[in-house]
């Protein structure tokens, strides 16, 4: 800066002396000296602003068909809870569930195998099946007494939290990429099942219940994902089948009330929620402009 | 009034010069003053330094300036007054308080370096204001001590000024090279006020250390003593070998005269006059009369017979190699060393005062050494003088001859006694040597067994048991004693190299004293134990029953029954409970078998007390460890299980999240697990999580009881450390005669009541003398400084204890140990570290048998020759 003793220079100051007629038009360049004040905003400043460039227009039926994925998973969890309540409160034999579960699992495996999607060898699958079943058999006495001294209320609370987390972390994406469902949600469901199983009275029921839970949470998601990508009609049939079974379970444990509420929930998820989403689309307000980071454009082969 | 004082270590090269400007009075010298640069000429009551002080501060770590409040005093090399205005070319005065800060007052006692230098002078300015200023002097408390510490942050702020000052000093030094400005004289306080010859060292043209004054002799006779070959110090210098490595014998000689007329000894550098009750006054008798001032340092001659000495460095009580080895072990010290290294590197890039030459550093060491030998040399010279005088003149007086005769008789008695002692030693020596050798071989065998490490990682016996550790310590001490004794004896013959002799002496007698004490206390404790054997036995019985059997069982049963509402896994609790109960039951039944031996055991403990109180204590510590083996094993088992469970839970938790630890890159990767892996992992994870509290409860119980046992043992072992290592002898010496434990030196400005008058008189005299009006000689004055030894502070005698407690704190009160405890890992107890204190008085490697043998043989030869010598003396005299 110029000191006191040096003579003042006759150069115009940009900020302090406004010039009524600037010679050059303003350019959006910071590194160029321009005859404008620092806080000057030109009319052209936001000319490149764009809104809602990439907003997708949803169709109602596509949305509702996609929602069947969620419905199918939530129904699985609900079905499992129904099964536990039926065993714990109404003394149904858990072996029955284990048998029917294994039966359906075998059918599903053979269908899957027959349609030629099997990448692992049958002996390896058989081996791991044997391993898991025998481990379960060995551990079920320990598991039975695991939470004996804990009160039931805390067990219910734990399992509810675990199932909620499972629903949130589940992988709902469509596509045949992964054979194994994401680890965390499976683990959460299995540990919820173990916690619940430790409430049961006999070793055999613990074993059967855990076997059923493994089939439902470990193997069924693989099958349903495959089916979804293989034939959508099949997926719809499977979902309908699950809904019906869950409705039956609800009817058994909670009467018509529970049945009605569940049906209403399913229907709202399938029909009302997509409509609501589409109605909310008009509030969408995305802003794009040249200041955004550039997006690479990938050409499809 | 402008005043300057100078700190001067050596005359030969540039030295830190402290120029102090002060107004007449300073009441609050330590109050920091924010406005530093330009003090008022008058009425400013603070002490000010011109720029140079910062250098003084830097150079002398813990410098004390005391009572500096007057007239210019310059060193031989520092510029005299006429050049003084040039030191501060910018005319800048800087308050001492800005440079030093009030913080300097604390923490600069600097006992570690022991270096306190005081300087200053006292002299009224000639002129009209003389009387007024003298009045002010009286009011000023003498003990105005300014400590200049080694805090460097706040010191240097004007490099350019400092360096221009430095250049000025250099120039002035060059100019005055041939004309020393200030002569420094060390003057013994016990110098009598008679006529006589002064003998001492002349270290340089202007640096004297006066050793003694001889009144009954004249200069020429004294010269004869120094030049003739018959006397101790003259001629062939039989003792030169002895003195040669202690000091430079060529410096020793006649330095001046006291109260003698001018014509006698005219060529001697010092001419001193002293009246009774006043301080000596000096003048140069050398031609030219260039001297402008004297700095007189009074010192009290350390009595070598009483093992007193001055030391610049505090005496170290532990062995040097030990202390360095100990410090090298510590990681913290490594960090410290690194930091110091960095600091020194930074200093290389910083302009920090003057570089100090070796000569400067050593000069202080040189004259301290000379002062230390003053008394001994005095004795030797007195003998020589007496011899010469005897030859010169026969005894005139009967009284004199009687005195001499009595003296000779006393000498003869002493000779006879020392001969008797040597004779008995001579007779007993071979028995002693044989005994020592037999003992040494036996102890070597025992030591080998004790220190034998079985292959692998098994610890040696002495690391397991406190008793054996104690035995090891005692044996090693006893092995070291003969060698220590021989070394001491040899050094005593060699005119005492006190700086090495005294610590060795203290160490030797300290360990002897401690052992004696230990035995005395031990005898009392042992007798008490034997007398009250029944009570002790019943108490031990009670303890075993109450704590080790019933108490433990009850605790475990309580754990098995949902302790405090904790929801433990019933089956696992039952399993653990049964297991631990079985172990405890087994051990208590074993103890039941041993119980009949208990009275005998206590009796044995009591007996062992007669070897030293440390042995019963060590035995009790071992007994406690033995009785609580079951707790230790339960602790080990539960800790293992707990730790295993924690580590597996950690890896299973990673699996639960779909992650896995990558050991190669030391990070956590995400993985796609197979379904069966996932299922199994989740199963185990849930299982272990629910079982964790149960295991934790058991672990905590046993860890807690183990901790209690460790604390009890630690208390016992620290009492062992106290008994084994307490610096008893050093403390006794400190109380008896603190000069035997020097911790440094201190300079103090001495201002006596009658000084002003003295100085005045002297001045007048000088003015009379130099009637030609030489300006330099009118500026001459004398500064009186007292040199005092500083005793070793008691705190530093316990340095080892502080070190140990710091080390223990670092090892056992750290976060690392807490985390080890919480994760159930083994917390190592490093016995060797704890015991390093105990061994600090012993050499790292014990002396071998061969070495001991050769030393003993040499010793016997020495004693033999002594015997013949003394025999010859006794027979020859009689």
From TrEMBL, chain A:
Pathway info: Glycolipid biosynthesis; glycosylphosphatidylinositol-anchor biosynthesis
Bilayer-crossing regions: 60-88, 94-112, 124-143, 155-172, 206-223, 230-249, 255-279
Chief localization: membrane
Localization per record: Membrane
Keywords from the UniProt entry: Glycosyltransferase, GPI-anchor biosynthesis, Membrane, Transferase, Transmembrane, Transmembrane helix
Recorded topology in the membrane: Multi-pass membrane protein
GO MF annotations in UniProt: glycosyltransferase activity
Pfam family, one: GPI2
Region (Disordered) residue spans: 1-22
Family: Belongs to the PIGC family.
Full protein name: Phosphatidylinositol N-acetylglucosaminyltransferase subunit C
Lineage: Eukaryota, Fungi, Dikarya, Ascomycota, Saccharomycotina
TrEMBL record, chain B:
Keyword Translocase included in the entry's annotation: no
GO molecular function terms attached to this record: transferase activity
Compositionally biased spans, kind Acidic residues: 757-777
Start and end residues of each stretch annotated as Disordered: 1-52, 65-137, 752-777
Pfam family membership, one: Gpi1
Biased composition (Polar residues): 1-10, 65-83
InterPro entries found in the cross-reference section: PigQ/GPI1
Biased composition (Basic and acidic residues): 32-48
Membrane-spanning residues: 419-439, 508-530, 572-594, 601-629, 678-701, 707-731
Keyword terms of this UniProt record: Membrane, Transferase, Transmembrane, Transmembrane helix
Low complexity: bias regions: 11-24
Entries under PANTHER family matching the protein: PHOSPHATIDYLINOSITOL N-ACETYLGLUCOSAMINYLTRANSFERASE SUBUNIT Q, PHOSPHATIDYLINOSITOL N-ACETYLGLUCOSAMINYLTRANSFERASE SUBUNIT Q-RELATED
Protein name per its UniProtKB record: N-acetylglucosaminyl transferase component family protein
Annotated organism of origin: Myxozyma melibiosi
């Amino acid at each position: 800066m110029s000191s006191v003793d040096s003579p003042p220079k006759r150069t115009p100051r940009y900020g302090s002396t406004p010039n009524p007629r600037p010679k050059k038009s303003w350019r959006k360049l910071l590194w160029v000296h321009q005859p404008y004040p620092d806080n000057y905003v030109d009319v052209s400043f936001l000319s490149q602003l764009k809104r809602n460039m990439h907003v997708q227009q949803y169709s109602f039926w596509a949305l509702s068909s996609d929602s069947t994925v969620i419905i199918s998973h939530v129904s699985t969890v609900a079905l499992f809870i129904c099964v536990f309540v039926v065993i714990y409160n109404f003394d149904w034999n858990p072996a029955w569930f284990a048998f029917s579960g294994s039966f359906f699992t075998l059918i599903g495996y053979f269908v899957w195998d027959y349609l030629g999607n099997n990448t692992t060898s049958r002996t390896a699958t058989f081996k791991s099946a044997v391993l898991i079943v025998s481990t379960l058999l060995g551990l079920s006495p320990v598991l039975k007494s695991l939470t004996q001294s804990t009160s039931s209320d805390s067990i219910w609370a734990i399992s509810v939290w675990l199932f909620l987390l499972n629903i949130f972390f589940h992988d709902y994406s469509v596509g045949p990429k992964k054979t194994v469902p994401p680890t965390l949600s499976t683990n959460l469901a299995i540990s919820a099942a173990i916690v619940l199983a430790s409430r049961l009275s006999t070793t055999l029921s613990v074993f059967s219940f855990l076997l059923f839970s493994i089939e439902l949470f470990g193997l069924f998601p693989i099958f349903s994902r495959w089916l979804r990508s293989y034939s959508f009609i099949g997926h719809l049939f499977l979902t309908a089948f699950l809904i019906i079974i869950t409705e039956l379970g609800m009817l058994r444990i909670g009467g018509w009330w529970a049945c009605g509420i569940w049906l209403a929930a399913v229907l709202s998820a399938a029909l009302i929620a997509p409509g609501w989403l589409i109605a909310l689309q008009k509030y969408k307000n995305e802003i794009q402009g040249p200041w955004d980071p550039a997006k690479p454009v990938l050409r499809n082969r | 009034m402008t005043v300057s004082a100078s700190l001067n270590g050596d005359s030969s090269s540039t030295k830190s010069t402290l120029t102090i400007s002060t107004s007449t009075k300073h009441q609050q010298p330590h109050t920091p003053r924010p406005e530093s640069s330009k003090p008022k000429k008058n009425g400013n009551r603070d002490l000010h330094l011109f720029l140079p002080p910062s250098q003084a501060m830097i150079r002398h770590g813990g410098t004390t300036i005391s009572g500096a409040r007057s007239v210019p005093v310059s060193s031989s090399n520092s510029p005299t007054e006429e050049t003084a205005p040039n030191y501060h070319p910018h005319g800048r005065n800087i308050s001492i308080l800005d440079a030093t800060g009030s913080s300097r007052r604390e923490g600069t006692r600097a006992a570690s370096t022991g270096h306190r230098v005081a300087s200053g002078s006292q002299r009224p300015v000639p002129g009209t204001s003389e009387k007024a200023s003298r009045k002010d002097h009286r009011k000023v408390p003498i003990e105005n001590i300014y400590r200049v510490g080694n805090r460097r942050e706040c010191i240097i702020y004007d490099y350019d000024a400092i360096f221009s000052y430095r250049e000025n000093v250099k120039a002035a030094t060059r100019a005055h090279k041939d004309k020393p400005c200030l002569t420094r004289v060390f003057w013994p306080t016990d110098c009598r006020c008679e006529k006589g010859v002064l003998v001492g060292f002349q270290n340089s043209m202007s640096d004297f250390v006066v050793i003694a004054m001889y009144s009954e002799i004249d200069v020429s006779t004294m010269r004869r003593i120094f030049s003739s070959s018959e006397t101790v110090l003259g001629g062939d210098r039989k003792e030169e070998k002895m003195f040669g490595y202690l000091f430079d014998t060529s410096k020793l000689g006649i330095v001046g005269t006291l109260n003698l007329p001018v014509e006698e000894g005219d060529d001697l550098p010092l001419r001193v006059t002293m009246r009774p009750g006043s301080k000596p006054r000096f003048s140069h008798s050398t031609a030219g009369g260039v001297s402008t001032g004297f700095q007189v340092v009074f010192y009290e001659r350390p009595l070598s017979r009483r093992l007193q000495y001055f030391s610049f460095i505090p005496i170290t009580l532990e062995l040097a190699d030990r202390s360095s080895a100990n410090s090298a072990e510590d990681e913290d010290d490594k960090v410290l060393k690194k930091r110091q290294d960095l600091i020194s590197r930074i200093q290389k890039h910083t302009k920090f005062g003057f570089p100090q030459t070796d000569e400067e550093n050593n000069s202080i060491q040189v004259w301290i050494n000379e002062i230390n030998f003053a008394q001994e040399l005095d004795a030797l010279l007195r003998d020589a003088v007496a011899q010469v005088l005897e030859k010169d003149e026969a005894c005139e007086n009967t009284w004199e001859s009687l005195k001499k005769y009595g003296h000779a008789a006393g000498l003869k008695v002493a000779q006879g006694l020392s001969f008797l002692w040597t004779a008995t030693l001579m007779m007993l020596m071979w028995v002693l040597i044989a005994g020592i050798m037999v003992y040494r071989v036996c102890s070597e065998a025992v030591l080998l067994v004790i220190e034998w490490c079985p292959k692998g990682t098994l610890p040696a016996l002495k690391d397991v048991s406190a008793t054996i550790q104690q035995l090891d310590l005692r044996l090693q001490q006893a092995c070291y004693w003969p060698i220590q004794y021989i070394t001491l004896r040899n050094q005593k013959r060699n005119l005492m190299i006190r700086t090495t002799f005294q610590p060795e002496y203290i160490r030797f007698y300290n360990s002897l004293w401690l052992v004696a004490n230990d035995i005395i206390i031990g005898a009392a404790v042992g007798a008490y134990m034997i007398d009250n054997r029944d009570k002790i036995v019943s108490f031990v019985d009670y303890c075993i029953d109450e704590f080790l059997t019933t108490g433990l069982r009850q605790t475990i049963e309580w754990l098995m029954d949902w302790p405090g509402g904790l929801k433990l896994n019933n089956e696992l609790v039952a399993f653990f409970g049964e297991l631990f109960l079985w172990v405890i039951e087994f051990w208590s039944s074993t103890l039941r078998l041993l119980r009949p031996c208990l009275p005998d055991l206590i009796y044995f403990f009591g007996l062992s007390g007669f070897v030293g109180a440390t042995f019963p204590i060590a035995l009790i510590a071992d007994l406690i460890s033995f009785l609580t083996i079951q707790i230790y094993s339960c602790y080990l088992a539960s800790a293992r299980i707990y730790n295993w469970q924690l580590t597996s839970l950690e890896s299973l938790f990673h699996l639960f999240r779909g992650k896995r630890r990558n050991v190669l890159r030391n990070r956590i990767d995400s993985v796609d697990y197979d379904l069966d892996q996932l299922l199994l992992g989740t199963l185990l994870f849930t299982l272990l999580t629910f079982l964790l509290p149960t295991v934790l409860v058991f672990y905590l119980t046993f860890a807690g009881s183990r901790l209690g046992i460790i604390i009890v043992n630690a208390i016992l072992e620290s009492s062992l450390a106290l008994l084994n290592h307490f610096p008893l002898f050093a403390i006794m010496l400190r109380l008896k005669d603190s000069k035997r434990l020097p911790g440094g030196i201190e300079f103090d400005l001495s201002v006596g009541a009658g000084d002003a008058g003295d100085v005045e008189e002297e001045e007048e005299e000088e003015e009379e003398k130099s009637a030609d009006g030489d300006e330099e000689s009118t500026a001459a004055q004398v500064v009186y400084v007292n040199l005092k030894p500083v005793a070793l502070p008691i705190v530093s005698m316990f340095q080892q204890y502080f070190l140990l407690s710091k080390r223990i704190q670092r090892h056992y009160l750290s976060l690392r140990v807490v985390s080890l405890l919480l994760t159930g890992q083994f917390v190592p107890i490093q016995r060797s570290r704890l015991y390093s204190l105990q061994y600090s008085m012993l050499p790292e490697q014990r002396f071998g048998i061969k070495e001991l043998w050769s030393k003993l043989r040499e010793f016997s030869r020495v004693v033999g020759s002594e015997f013949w010598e003394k025999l010859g003396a006794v027979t020859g005299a009689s």
